[in-house]
Design brief:
The structure is a homodimer. The first copy, chain A, has two domains: 7-23 and 260-363, Aspartate Aminotransferase, domain 1, CATH 3.90.1150; 43-241, Aspartate Aminotransferase, domain 2 (3-Layer(aba) Sandwich). Helix content of chain A is 46%, strand content 16%. The first copy, chain A, contains 16 helices and 13 strands. In chain A, the strands form three sheets. A seven-stranded mixed sheet of chain A has the order 2-8-7-6-5-3-4, with helices on both faces. The longest helix of chain A has 18 residues, at 346-363. Chains A and B meet through helix 2, helix 4, helix 6, helix 11 and helix 12 of A and helix 2, helix 4, helix 6, helix 11 and helix 12 of B.
Chain lengths: 364, 364
């Protein structure tokens, strides 16, 4: 860094951030609660109108019989996979090598449930029908993540997805959707949430990714599946006396932003196209299929970050708080387009892209 | 019920409730957030000033090196017991037969950790030094709950507690405190939280019992104990991106109410004395040792509840939303004295007690 302070600090100070919906500050909660009647009763250990109505609404949106609100997707998905294994009595699930459960959960699935995992596909590729057909035949459950976040949010095309679903049904393999970013992929597929979820036996969605809520998740499926998930929620300590701080903000931001996904998607494509013109920079996927993509640089993190810092300071445009090293001369960052991007004057973005172009050229 | 609606509904309508701090409604959160700067940054996955400062403050209050904020006590305590077992390699813990982990958590401890439990003492009695001395000698951890909630919030005297602690230390048995209601027992012992916690290796406290927060818990102990507890918090799905709705309200209501525990305790003794004068009613303990006690009735629940309903309607005083049956002609409810009691005109309470006396006499 050529200036005092970390890249994250400089990023925080930029007025124009390419990604996200703005700061994750207390105002996010205050805004969601401003119009709510103080007399409204809390949910109580998973019961009460407040939680039950939202669960019903989400079940309807996802086209499932029932839905259960969880404090986190980590908890919801481990429980989903455990229940899927209990159906067959074989504790074996298959998922992508960069699945959230494999890389972000400290092996909770294995430590808490002794579930064996089968990693499908190369870590840089999507899971294909062929991968699924080659799985060991005692796999109880397959988890698919749409979009595949850790590889830039890539997506299988709909025909491939439908074929995987048909195969799993035929083979009686439980198919679970990690839909943390489900609403973000609907414009690409041109389908409703219920249409996509119809291919899956169970689905989890998150409220703080593209929707920008505070935290919280929903797990949906048939009642015979969600009912025991509530027992496990209690076992995990997730059946809090009050989950309403998350539920009411989830509801508020869901309604605020679910209709903006087409716009985020179009803007992500526009931004990616602009960035792909910068020499030494490429996006993955080249043309985004949701509101997200990865930005790859042909430069080590230590050489890249001072350049980004200069761009932030000169233009006020923040690209990322931190780059991740992927090799001796490569690094990347993730961009999720939300409300912030649309508020940036277009020439500011162009100015940042062309300064980045210039500084990268000088560094070679 | 002689009137339409359940006892819980009638209770909700009463203007004068003996127990609690008032309705658990959205206003509880709104009040806690009213004065907070909207620009304050969220905690992020267990990091950031907001969570770290509160954890430090609680570590100080509890006299422990470190403290970790958890969404729930269920999660915090299972993890505490697991870590205690990992020290010795023997998955065996001892606790009271009516311990929260035994009766309210759907066997999470056993299902998630395969930990064997040794139940100490008769379910109607406190755990004594003698019970502890008679445990199997491979017990890794003893959990004590102060006060013992399910038997009216009884407490061992301090000398007994100190003797149990000394014995555990000598035998290298990990001693964990279920201090869900720790602040509530300090006036009886005449000790600080740190003095009581000094007898224990680890301690959990709750923010929504006597303190009246929304949800949340803290687990405290040495850094070598709390550090791995964060890994398990991640495994459980409790390491949320944002826990601030619970942390900030925990902090607000902790500071609001921690100084009122002596008052709640005195009021609980006063109220229990008044109720013990009603024939057919007795409190457990007879003289409360915290802000809580159980109210026992020599009547079946089905005969009792219409009488309670009449008392609520005639006097406006609410005693409980529901009684629990304990035998063919016995039932009880729990009373936790909080802010509500002090706001009731004294003659209203007397009026309710004497009507209860009269109606119970007529029912015999």
């Amino acid at each position: 860094m050529n200036k005092s302070g970390s890249l994250a600090e400089l990023y925080r100070e930029t007025p124009y951030k390419l990604a996200g919906h703005g700061q994750r500050n207390i105002g996010v909660l205050q805004e969601a609660f401003r119009q709510i009647d103080a007399e409204m009763n809390s949910d109580m250990y998973g019961s009460g109108r407040l939680i039950e109505e939202f669960q019903q609404e989400m079940a309807g949106v996802l086209g499932k019989e029932t839905a259960v609100f969880f404090p986190s997707g980590t908890m919801a998905q481990q429980i989903a996979l455990r229940l899927a294994c209990d159906r067959t009595g074989v504790k074996k699930v298959a998922y992508h090598p960069l699945c959230h459960l494999e890389i972000h959960e400290q092996d909770g699935l294995k430590e808490l449930h002794q579930i064996e995992t089968v990693l499908l596909a190369d870590k840089d590729s999507l899971i294909t029908l062929q991968d699924v057909q080659s799985m060991p035949d005692d796999v109880a459950c397959l988890l698919l993540e749409l979009p595949q976040r850790e590889i830039g949010g890539q997506l299988p095309d709909y025909a491939e997805l439908a074929a995987i679903s048909a195969y799993c049904r035929e083979q009686r393999i439980w198919l679970h959707l990690d839909g943390a970013r489900l609403f973000e992929v609907l414009p690409y597929y041109g389908k409703t949430a219920a249409e996509i979820c119809g291919l899956f036996d169970s689905v989890y969605i998150s409220f703080y990714k593209g929707l920008g809520g505070i935290a919280g998740a929903v797990l949906a499926g048939a009642a015979e599946f969600t009912q025991p998930s509530k027992v496990w929620k209690r076992r995990y300590g997730g059946d809090l006396i009050s989950l309403y701080p998350y539920i009411l903000s989830a509801s508020y931001y869901y309604h605020l932003r679910v209709g903006r996904m087409q716009q985020y998607y179009e803007e992500a494509k526009e931004l990616a196209a602009m960035l792909n013109q910068v020499e030494g920079v490429s996006t993955l996927p080249e043309v985004p299929v949701s509101n997200m993509f990865h930005l790859h640089f042909g430069l080590s993190r230590s050489k890249l970050e001072p350049i980004l810092a200069d761009v932030y300071e000169a233009t006020g445009v923040g690209i990322t708080p931190a780059a991740r090293e992927t090799g001796v001369s490569s690094a990347y960052c993730e961009i999720n387009v939300g409300d912030s991007y649309g508020a940036i004057p277009k020439d500011k973005v162009k100015e940042a892209a062309s300064l980045l172009h210039k500084l990268l050229a000088e560094s070679r």
